[in-house]
Design a protein that fits this description.
Elements: E1 14-19, E2 23-28, E3 61-63, E4 69-70, H1 78-86, E5 90-93, E6 99-101, E7 106-108, H2 117-128
Parallel strand pairs: 2-7
Antiparallel strand pairs: 1-2, 3-4, 3-5, 5-6, 6-7
Bound molecules: zinc ion (3 copies).
């Protein structure tokens, strides 16, 4: 097993990640809310699941704390509402598989935050039928 470099002292470390549509977006390489991740993220709803409240069918988000599927702030804001009511802050987009933290108010860099990788891998597999091409993790960059 490869030893994983643990850089837990990263505070507000930000790296630029190339976003598919919107150009350069900032994604954080650390997040202090990973303890709220569900303990079972291997069994998650299908990426084409509708919003559990309004049945909106596309571009929904998955709550990584309770695995609820809810629509985006551009539709009926059910995920935002869920966050405000429950405090669940880590969500994954079924449309582009990006991970957003409401508490950090930032996208998270899945390539650099290992606890997010298993669920990312599962969603990627469900959506595209193959595992994601993870970059090799290196701490010297
Ligand atoms: Zn966070
Ligand atoms: Zn909805
Ligand atoms: Zn939740």
């Amino acid at each position: 097993m490869a030893d994983k470099a643990s850089s837990s002292c990263a505070t507000g470390e930000v790296e630029e990640v190339y976003g598919a549509e919107s150009g350069w977006v900032e994604a954080r390489n650390s997040c202090g809310h990973l303890q709220s991740l569900s303990s079972d993220l291997h069994h998650i709803p299908s990426p084409d699941s509708p919003c559990t409240r309004c049945q909106h069918s596309a571009e929904n988000w998955l709550c990584l704390s309770c695995k609820d599927v809810l629509c985006s702030r551009f539709i009926n804001k059910h995920m935002l509402d869920h966050h405000q009511k429950t405090g669940h802050c880590l969500v994954l987009s079924f449309s582009d598989l990006s991970v957003w933290c409401f508490a950090c108010e930032a996208y998270l860099n899945v390539q650099k935050i290992q606890p997010l990788q298993p669920v990312y891998e599962v969603v990627h597999l469900l959506k595209f039928g193959e595992r994601p091409p993870f970059l090799p993790i290196n701490s010297s960059e």
